[in-house]
Amino acid sequence: MRTRTRNRRWSAAVGVAALAATAGGALGAPAAAEGEVPPGQVDFPTQCLAPQEAGLPPADGQSTARITVDDPAPRVGDTVTVTYQVLRTPARNPVGGELPADTLTPTGRILLAGAQSGEVTVVGAKRNDPVPAGAPLPAVTMTGTFTVTAPGETTLTPGPYTLHTRHLLDLDTACTAAAAAAPVSARLAAADLPTANLRSVFLASAHGRPGAPVRVTAAGFPPGAAVTVAGRAGAAETADRVRATADGLGAAVVELPVTDRATTAVVAYEGAAWSARQGSAPAAYTVVDAAPPPPGTRKVTATVEPGGLGVTQAGEDITLGAVAYGDGAAAPGRIGTVTVTDARGGPAGWSLTGKVSDFTGPGGIRIPGASLTWTPSCAAAPGSLSPCTPGSAGVVGPEGALLASAPDAPLVGGTFTIDAAVTLHVPPYTPPGAYTAVLTLTLS
Description:
Layout: E1 4-14, E2 41-49, E3 59-69, E4 79-88, E5 104-114, E6 118-123, E7 140-147, E8 152-167, E9 169-177, E10 186-190, E11 200-203, E12 207-208, E13 213-219, E14 226-233, E15 236-245, E16 252-257, E17 265-269, E18 283-284, E19 286-287, E20 309-313, E21 318-319, E22 329-334, E23 338-342, E24 350-356, E25 359-360, E26 366-367, E27 372-380, E28 389-390, E29 394-395, E30 401-406, E31 414-426, E32 433-443
Parallel strand pairs: 1-21, 12-19
Antiparallel strand pairs: 1-32, 2-3, 2-9, 3-4, 4-7, 5-6, 5-8, 8-9, 8-10, 11-13, 13-16, 14-15, 14-17, 17-18, 20-23, 22-31, 23-31, 24-30, 24-32, 25-26, 27-29, 27-31, 28-30
Protein backbone atom coordinates (compact mmCIF):
# COMPACT_ATOMS: atom_id res chain seq x y z
CA MET A 1 0.00 0.00 0.00
CA ARG A 2 1.45 3.36 -0.97
CA THR A 3 0.63 6.52 0.95
CA ARG A 4 0.46 9.84 -0.89
CA THR A 5 0.45 13.21 0.86
CA ARG A 6 -0.34 16.67 -0.51
CA ASN A 7 -0.04 20.01 1.27
CA ARG A 8 -2.17 23.03 0.38
CA ARG A 9 -2.02 26.53 1.85
CA TRP A 10 -5.21 28.14 3.09
CA SER A 11 -5.87 31.80 3.84
CA ALA A 12 -8.70 33.70 5.45
CA ALA A 13 -9.05 37.49 5.60
CA VAL A 14 -10.46 39.39 8.57
CA GLY A 15 -11.95 42.81 7.77
CA VAL A 16 -10.43 45.94 9.36
CA ALA A 17 -12.36 47.94 11.98
CA ALA A 18 -11.65 49.86 15.20
CA LEU A 19 -10.11 47.76 17.98
CA ALA A 20 -12.31 47.41 21.05
CA ALA A 21 -11.40 46.06 24.48
CA THR A 22 -13.56 43.45 26.17
CA ALA A 23 -14.02 42.31 29.75
CA GLY A 24 -15.89 39.43 31.30
CA GLY A 25 -16.52 37.51 34.48
CA ALA A 26 -15.87 33.87 35.34
CA LEU A 27 -17.20 31.29 32.92
CA GLY A 28 -20.15 29.20 34.09
CA ALA A 29 -21.57 25.84 33.10
CA PRO A 30 -23.70 25.55 29.95
CA ALA A 31 -27.34 26.30 30.59
CA ALA A 32 -29.61 23.43 31.59
CA ALA A 33 -33.35 23.21 31.78
CA GLU A 34 -34.88 24.55 34.98
CA GLY A 35 -34.39 22.01 37.77
CA GLU A 36 -32.11 19.85 35.64
CA VAL A 37 -28.51 19.18 36.68
CA PRO A 38 -26.06 19.61 33.75
CA PRO A 39 -24.30 16.39 32.72
CA GLY A 40 -21.16 15.78 34.73
CA GLN A 41 -22.00 18.22 37.54
CA VAL A 42 -21.12 16.72 40.93
CA ASP A 43 -21.16 17.79 44.59
CA PHE A 44 -18.66 16.66 47.18
CA PRO A 45 -17.78 17.66 50.77
CA THR A 46 -14.74 19.91 50.82
CA GLN A 47 -12.45 21.50 53.39
CA CYS A 48 -10.74 24.74 52.40
CA LEU A 49 -7.74 25.83 54.48
CA ALA A 50 -7.40 29.60 54.57
CA PRO A 51 -3.87 31.05 54.37
CA GLN A 52 -2.15 31.32 57.75
CA GLU A 53 -1.79 35.08 57.35
CA ALA A 54 -5.59 35.48 57.22
CA GLY A 55 -6.13 34.00 60.69
CA LEU A 56 -9.34 32.28 59.56
CA PRO A 57 -10.53 28.78 60.56
CA PRO A 58 -10.94 26.03 57.95
CA ALA A 59 -14.07 26.37 55.83
CA ASP A 60 -16.11 23.17 55.49
CA GLY A 61 -18.92 22.76 52.97
CA GLN A 62 -19.93 21.49 49.55
CA SER A 63 -18.05 22.05 46.33
CA THR A 64 -20.05 21.90 43.11
CA ALA A 65 -17.85 21.08 40.12
CA ARG A 66 -18.05 19.97 36.53
CA ILE A 67 -15.41 18.53 34.17
CA THR A 68 -15.82 18.56 30.40
CA VAL A 69 -13.57 17.33 27.57
CA ASP A 70 -13.34 18.63 24.01
CA ASP A 71 -13.23 15.08 22.59
CA PRO A 72 -14.94 12.23 24.49
CA ALA A 73 -13.84 9.65 21.88
CA PRO A 74 -10.17 10.36 21.07
CA ARG A 75 -7.54 8.06 19.63
CA VAL A 76 -4.35 7.02 21.38
CA GLY A 77 -1.82 9.82 20.83
CA ASP A 78 -4.44 12.58 20.64
CA THR A 79 -4.25 15.65 22.89
CA VAL A 80 -7.43 16.25 24.89
CA THR A 81 -8.36 19.62 26.38
CA VAL A 82 -10.13 19.40 29.75
CA THR A 83 -12.11 22.10 31.55
CA TYR A 84 -12.58 22.02 35.35
CA GLN A 85 -15.31 24.35 36.59
CA VAL A 86 -15.79 24.99 40.31
CA LEU A 87 -19.29 26.44 40.40
CA ARG A 88 -19.54 26.68 44.20
CA THR A 89 -16.89 26.57 46.92
CA PRO A 90 -16.91 26.94 50.72
CA ALA A 91 -13.76 29.07 50.46
CA ARG A 92 -14.16 32.72 51.49
CA ASN A 93 -12.39 35.98 50.79
CA PRO A 94 -9.19 35.71 52.89
CA VAL A 95 -8.28 39.42 52.89
CA GLY A 96 -9.52 41.84 55.52
CA GLY A 97 -11.49 43.99 53.10
CA GLU A 98 -12.94 43.80 49.62
CA LEU A 99 -11.03 41.67 47.10
CA PRO A 100 -10.67 43.74 43.90
CA ALA A 101 -11.69 42.47 40.46
CA ASP A 102 -9.33 40.21 38.52
CA THR A 103 -7.04 39.33 41.43
CA LEU A 104 -8.08 35.66 41.85
CA THR A 105 -6.09 32.93 40.03
CA PRO A 106 -7.33 29.31 40.31
CA THR A 107 -5.22 26.18 39.81
CA GLY A 108 -6.23 22.57 40.27
CA ARG A 109 -5.78 18.93 39.40
CA ILE A 110 -8.00 16.42 37.60
CA LEU A 111 -7.53 12.78 38.58
CA LEU A 112 -7.45 10.15 35.81
CA ALA A 113 -8.31 6.48 36.42
CA GLY A 114 -9.24 3.41 34.41
CA ALA A 115 -7.42 2.78 31.14
CA GLN A 116 -5.11 5.71 31.91
CA SER A 117 -4.12 6.97 35.35
CA GLY A 118 -2.43 10.12 36.55
CA GLU A 119 -3.20 13.78 37.08
CA VAL A 120 -3.86 16.74 34.80
CA THR A 121 -2.87 20.22 35.99
CA VAL A 122 -5.39 22.91 35.12
CA VAL A 123 -5.04 26.68 35.42
CA GLY A 124 -7.53 29.53 35.17
CA ALA A 125 -7.25 33.19 34.26
CA LYS A 126 -7.54 36.15 36.65
CA ARG A 127 -11.18 36.84 36.00
CA ASN A 128 -13.42 37.73 38.93
CA ASP A 129 -15.81 40.44 40.06
CA PRO A 130 -15.03 42.28 43.34
CA VAL A 131 -15.66 40.07 46.41
CA PRO A 132 -16.87 41.72 49.64
CA ALA A 133 -15.02 41.00 52.89
CA GLY A 134 -15.90 37.55 54.29
CA ALA A 135 -18.01 36.61 51.25
CA PRO A 136 -17.64 33.25 49.43
CA LEU A 137 -15.12 33.26 46.60
CA PRO A 138 -16.74 33.14 43.11
CA ALA A 139 -17.00 30.37 40.54
CA VAL A 140 -13.82 29.70 38.56
CA THR A 141 -12.91 27.88 35.34
CA MET A 142 -9.60 26.10 34.75
CA THR A 143 -8.28 24.34 31.64
CA GLY A 144 -5.43 22.01 30.77
CA THR A 145 -4.43 19.28 28.33
CA PHE A 146 -3.16 15.72 28.41
CA THR A 147 -2.10 13.12 25.84
CA VAL A 148 -4.07 9.88 25.54
CA THR A 149 -1.69 6.97 26.10
CA ALA A 150 -3.99 3.93 26.39
CA PRO A 151 -7.17 2.65 24.69
CA GLY A 152 -10.32 2.10 26.74
CA GLU A 153 -12.41 4.09 29.20
CA THR A 154 -10.76 6.73 31.39
CA THR A 155 -12.64 8.50 34.19
CA LEU A 156 -12.00 12.12 35.21
CA THR A 157 -12.58 13.16 38.82
CA PRO A 158 -12.29 16.64 40.40
CA GLY A 159 -9.11 16.87 42.44
CA PRO A 160 -7.73 19.50 44.85
CA TYR A 161 -7.89 23.13 43.80
CA THR A 162 -6.16 26.25 45.06
CA LEU A 163 -7.54 29.81 44.94
CA HIS A 164 -4.67 32.30 44.86
CA THR A 165 -5.46 35.93 45.68
CA ARG A 166 -3.05 38.76 45.04
CA HIS A 167 -4.04 41.92 46.86
CA LEU A 168 -1.55 43.47 49.23
CA LEU A 169 -0.30 39.93 49.96
CA ASP A 170 -0.08 36.68 47.97
CA LEU A 171 -2.53 34.32 49.72
CA ASP A 172 -3.44 30.72 48.85
CA THR A 173 -6.67 29.00 49.92
CA ALA A 174 -6.23 25.22 49.42
CA CYS A 175 -9.35 23.08 48.99
CA THR A 176 -9.49 19.28 49.05
CA ALA A 177 -12.28 16.70 49.06
CA ALA A 178 -13.17 15.76 52.63
CA ALA A 179 -14.05 12.19 51.55
CA ALA A 180 -11.62 9.71 49.97
CA ALA A 181 -12.37 11.10 46.52
CA ALA A 182 -14.92 13.22 44.70
CA PRO A 183 -17.43 11.53 42.36
CA VAL A 184 -16.49 10.88 38.74
CA SER A 185 -17.48 13.90 36.64
CA ALA A 186 -16.54 12.87 33.08
CA ARG A 187 -15.53 9.86 31.03
CA LEU A 188 -13.82 9.35 27.70
CA ALA A 189 -13.46 6.22 25.57
CA ALA A 190 -10.17 6.14 23.66
CA ALA A 191 -9.64 4.06 20.54
CA ASP A 192 -6.32 2.49 19.69
CA LEU A 193 -4.38 4.28 16.95
CA PRO A 194 -4.73 2.41 13.66
CA THR A 195 -1.47 1.27 12.14
CA ALA A 196 -0.57 1.45 8.48
CA ASN A 197 -0.39 -1.83 6.57
CA LEU A 198 3.13 -1.95 5.11
CA ARG A 199 2.97 -5.57 3.94
CA SER A 200 4.06 -6.09 0.33
CA VAL A 201 5.34 -8.75 -2.09
CA PHE A 202 8.00 -8.53 -4.79
CA LEU A 203 8.41 -11.11 -7.58
CA ALA A 204 11.70 -11.95 -9.24
CA SER A 205 9.73 -12.60 -12.45
CA ALA A 206 6.25 -11.56 -13.58
CA HIS A 207 5.66 -14.71 -15.68
CA GLY A 208 6.69 -18.33 -16.01
CA ARG A 209 5.79 -21.78 -17.40
CA PRO A 210 3.35 -24.01 -15.46
CA GLY A 211 5.13 -25.50 -12.44
CA ALA A 212 8.06 -23.09 -12.62
CA PRO A 213 9.03 -21.60 -9.24
CA VAL A 214 9.05 -17.84 -8.80
CA ARG A 215 11.17 -16.19 -6.13
CA VAL A 216 8.91 -14.13 -3.85
CA THR A 217 10.03 -11.61 -1.23
CA ALA A 218 7.38 -10.76 1.37
CA ALA A 219 8.24 -7.65 3.42
CA GLY A 220 6.72 -5.39 6.06
CA PHE A 221 5.50 -8.16 8.38
CA PRO A 222 6.06 -8.34 12.15
CA PRO A 223 9.30 -10.20 12.93
CA GLY A 224 8.59 -13.89 13.57
CA ALA A 225 5.14 -13.77 11.97
CA ALA A 226 3.80 -16.84 10.12
CA VAL A 227 3.47 -15.73 6.49
CA THR A 228 1.47 -17.44 3.75
CA VAL A 229 2.44 -16.74 0.12
CA ALA A 230 -0.32 -17.78 -2.27
CA GLY A 231 -1.50 -17.46 -5.84
CA ARG A 232 -4.72 -15.64 -6.69
CA ALA A 233 -7.21 -15.68 -9.53
CA GLY A 234 -9.21 -12.50 -9.10
CA ALA A 235 -10.57 -12.49 -5.54
CA ALA A 236 -10.07 -16.28 -4.99
CA GLU A 237 -6.91 -18.12 -3.99
CA THR A 238 -5.51 -20.83 -6.24
CA ALA A 239 -3.82 -24.05 -5.22
CA ASP A 240 -0.34 -22.45 -5.28
CA ARG A 241 0.77 -21.88 -1.67
CA VAL A 242 3.85 -21.94 0.56
CA ARG A 243 4.42 -20.84 4.15
CA ALA A 244 7.37 -19.19 5.84
CA THR A 245 8.39 -17.26 8.95
CA ALA A 246 9.35 -13.57 8.78
CA ASP A 247 12.91 -12.85 9.88
CA GLY A 248 14.04 -10.17 12.33
CA LEU A 249 13.47 -7.50 9.70
CA GLY A 250 9.93 -8.68 8.94
CA ALA A 251 10.82 -10.27 5.58
CA ALA A 252 10.46 -13.78 4.17
CA VAL A 253 11.98 -15.05 0.90
CA VAL A 254 10.38 -18.18 -0.62
CA GLU A 255 10.20 -20.13 -3.86
CA LEU A 256 6.57 -20.47 -4.95
CA PRO A 257 5.92 -23.18 -7.60
CA VAL A 258 3.09 -21.84 -9.76
CA THR A 259 1.29 -24.92 -11.08
CA ASP A 260 -2.28 -23.61 -11.30
CA ARG A 261 -2.82 -22.09 -14.74
CA ALA A 262 -5.56 -19.86 -13.25
CA THR A 263 -3.05 -17.92 -11.12
CA THR A 264 -2.92 -14.25 -12.15
CA ALA A 265 -1.32 -12.71 -9.06
CA VAL A 266 0.60 -13.50 -5.87
CA VAL A 267 -0.19 -12.23 -2.34
CA ALA A 268 1.28 -12.66 1.14
CA TYR A 269 -0.62 -12.51 4.41
CA GLU A 270 -0.84 -13.42 8.09
CA GLY A 271 -3.63 -15.48 9.60
CA ALA A 272 -5.98 -18.04 8.12
CA ALA A 273 -6.94 -15.99 5.04
CA TRP A 274 -5.98 -12.80 3.21
CA SER A 275 -7.40 -9.52 4.56
CA ALA A 276 -6.72 -5.88 3.71
CA ARG A 277 -5.44 -5.35 7.26
CA GLN A 278 -2.95 -8.25 7.36
CA GLY A 279 -2.25 -8.92 3.70
CA SER A 280 -0.23 -7.41 0.89
CA ALA A 281 -1.57 -5.96 -2.32
CA PRO A 282 -1.42 -8.52 -5.16
CA ALA A 283 1.58 -8.65 -7.49
CA ALA A 284 0.64 -9.60 -11.07
CA TYR A 285 1.90 -12.93 -12.44
CA THR A 286 1.20 -14.64 -15.79
CA VAL A 287 1.38 -18.41 -16.38
CA VAL A 288 2.74 -18.98 -19.90
CA ASP A 289 1.34 -22.27 -21.20
CA ALA A 290 4.11 -24.32 -22.81
CA ALA A 291 1.76 -26.61 -24.76
CA PRO A 292 2.11 -25.98 -28.52
CA PRO A 293 -1.08 -24.74 -30.21
CA PRO A 294 -2.85 -27.04 -32.68
CA PRO A 295 -1.68 -26.78 -36.30
CA GLY A 296 -3.03 -23.73 -38.03
CA THR A 297 -3.76 -21.85 -34.78
CA ARG A 298 -1.94 -19.26 -32.75
CA LYS A 299 -2.39 -18.50 -29.08
CA VAL A 300 -3.01 -14.84 -28.25
CA THR A 301 -2.15 -13.73 -24.70
CA ALA A 302 -3.05 -10.33 -23.26
CA THR A 303 -1.86 -9.25 -19.81
CA VAL A 304 -3.60 -6.64 -17.68
CA GLU A 305 -0.95 -5.13 -15.43
CA PRO A 306 -1.96 -3.46 -12.18
CA GLY A 307 -1.39 0.27 -11.87
CA GLY A 308 -1.19 2.47 -8.82
CA LEU A 309 -3.22 4.49 -6.35
CA GLY A 310 -2.86 8.25 -6.79
CA VAL A 311 -4.39 11.60 -5.92
CA THR A 312 -4.40 14.95 -7.72
CA GLN A 313 -5.94 18.28 -6.74
CA ALA A 314 -7.15 21.13 -8.95
CA GLY A 315 -5.98 24.68 -8.49
CA GLU A 316 -3.39 26.24 -6.25
CA ASP A 317 -3.83 28.03 -2.89
CA ILE A 318 -7.34 28.41 -1.51
CA THR A 319 -8.78 31.67 -0.21
CA LEU A 320 -11.68 31.63 2.21
CA GLY A 321 -14.28 34.38 2.41
CA ALA A 322 -13.54 37.54 4.38
CA VAL A 323 -15.30 38.32 7.66
CA ALA A 324 -15.86 41.65 9.41
CA TYR A 325 -13.90 42.55 12.52
CA GLY A 326 -15.84 42.44 15.78
CA ASP A 327 -18.42 39.71 16.19
CA GLY A 328 -17.27 36.17 15.52
CA ALA A 329 -18.18 35.01 12.04
CA ALA A 330 -17.74 32.15 9.58
CA ALA A 331 -15.34 32.34 6.62
CA PRO A 332 -16.67 29.93 3.95
CA GLY A 333 -14.88 28.22 1.07
CA ARG A 334 -14.14 24.92 -0.71
CA ILE A 335 -11.04 22.76 -0.84
CA GLY A 336 -11.21 22.37 -4.64
CA THR A 337 -11.75 19.15 -6.58
CA VAL A 338 -9.58 16.22 -5.49
CA THR A 339 -9.35 13.21 -7.84
CA VAL A 340 -8.41 9.74 -6.59
CA THR A 341 -7.46 7.15 -9.19
CA ASP A 342 -7.30 3.49 -8.14
CA ALA A 343 -5.85 1.27 -10.85
CA ARG A 344 -4.33 -1.43 -8.63
CA GLY A 345 -6.86 -4.13 -9.51
CA GLY A 346 -6.69 -5.73 -6.07
CA PRO A 347 -9.13 -6.16 -3.17
CA ALA A 348 -7.90 -3.35 -0.91
CA GLY A 349 -9.93 -0.16 -0.55
CA TRP A 350 -8.53 3.27 0.27
CA SER A 351 -9.08 6.23 2.58
CA LEU A 352 -8.31 9.93 2.10
CA THR A 353 -7.79 11.94 5.27
CA GLY A 354 -7.02 15.58 5.86
CA LYS A 355 -5.61 17.65 8.69
CA VAL A 356 -5.00 21.38 8.99
CA SER A 357 -2.48 23.37 10.99
CA ASP A 358 -3.34 26.44 13.05
CA PHE A 359 -4.05 29.61 11.05
CA THR A 360 -1.26 32.14 11.66
CA GLY A 361 -1.80 35.87 11.25
CA PRO A 362 -0.12 39.19 12.03
CA GLY A 363 2.30 39.10 14.93
CA GLY A 364 2.02 35.33 15.25
CA ILE A 365 -1.61 35.47 16.38
CA ARG A 366 -3.29 32.11 15.78
CA ILE A 367 -6.75 30.78 15.04
CA PRO A 368 -6.80 27.09 16.11
CA GLY A 369 -6.98 24.56 13.29
CA ALA A 370 -9.88 22.99 15.20
CA SER A 371 -11.91 26.09 14.21
CA LEU A 372 -12.11 24.70 10.65
CA THR A 373 -15.05 22.40 9.82
CA TRP A 374 -15.96 20.70 6.56
CA THR A 375 -18.79 18.85 4.83
CA PRO A 376 -17.26 16.36 2.35
CA SER A 377 -18.82 15.15 -0.90
CA CYS A 378 -17.71 12.29 -3.15
CA ALA A 379 -18.74 10.73 -6.47
CA ALA A 380 -17.49 7.70 -8.43
CA ALA A 381 -17.01 8.09 -12.18
CA PRO A 382 -19.14 5.86 -14.47
CA GLY A 383 -17.66 2.39 -14.77
CA SER A 384 -15.89 2.50 -11.40
CA LEU A 385 -16.03 -0.79 -9.50
CA SER A 386 -16.02 0.79 -6.05
CA PRO A 387 -18.48 3.15 -4.38
CA CYS A 388 -17.14 6.36 -2.85
CA THR A 389 -18.27 7.31 0.65
CA PRO A 390 -17.75 10.90 1.91
CA GLY A 391 -16.49 11.45 5.43
CA SER A 392 -18.69 12.88 8.15
CA ALA A 393 -19.26 16.60 8.48
CA GLY A 394 -17.34 18.07 11.41
CA VAL A 395 -14.05 19.45 12.69
CA VAL A 396 -10.87 18.95 10.64
CA GLY A 397 -8.19 20.32 12.98
CA PRO A 398 -4.58 19.19 13.48
CA GLU A 399 -5.68 15.66 14.48
CA GLY A 400 -7.35 15.20 11.10
CA ALA A 401 -10.59 13.74 9.79
CA LEU A 402 -11.75 11.39 7.04
CA LEU A 403 -12.50 13.14 3.74
CA ALA A 404 -13.61 10.10 1.70
CA SER A 405 -13.07 6.34 1.41
CA ALA A 406 -13.79 3.23 -0.65
CA PRO A 407 -14.29 -0.19 1.01
CA ASP A 408 -12.41 -3.44 0.52
CA ALA A 409 -14.02 -5.72 -2.06
CA PRO A 410 -13.10 -8.76 -4.17
CA LEU A 411 -12.06 -6.35 -6.96
CA VAL A 412 -11.81 -2.59 -6.55
CA GLY A 413 -10.90 0.35 -8.75
CA GLY A 414 -12.13 3.48 -10.42
CA THR A 415 -11.87 7.25 -10.55
CA PHE A 416 -13.41 9.37 -7.81
CA THR A 417 -13.98 13.12 -7.51
CA ILE A 418 -14.01 14.56 -4.01
CA ASP A 419 -14.67 18.04 -2.63
CA ALA A 420 -15.67 19.64 0.66
CA ALA A 421 -17.36 22.84 1.72
CA VAL A 422 -15.29 24.34 4.55
CA THR A 423 -15.98 26.98 7.18
CA LEU A 424 -13.43 28.72 9.39
CA HIS A 425 -15.09 29.94 12.58
CA VAL A 426 -13.26 33.20 13.37
CA PRO A 427 -13.44 34.18 17.09
CA PRO A 428 -14.85 37.61 18.04
CA TYR A 429 -12.40 40.49 17.87
CA THR A 430 -9.71 38.55 16.05
CA PRO A 431 -7.11 41.17 15.01
CA PRO A 432 -7.47 42.20 11.33
CA GLY A 433 -5.17 40.65 8.75
CA ALA A 434 -4.62 37.56 6.62
CA TYR A 435 -4.44 34.21 8.39
CA THR A 436 -2.89 31.18 6.67
CA ALA A 437 -2.70 27.46 7.41
CA VAL A 438 -1.56 24.29 5.63
CA LEU A 439 -4.00 21.51 4.73
CA THR A 440 -2.40 18.06 4.33
CA LEU A 441 -4.27 15.33 2.46
CA THR A 442 -3.06 11.75 2.89
CA LEU A 443 -4.18 8.84 0.69
CA SER A 444 -3.61 5.33 1.99
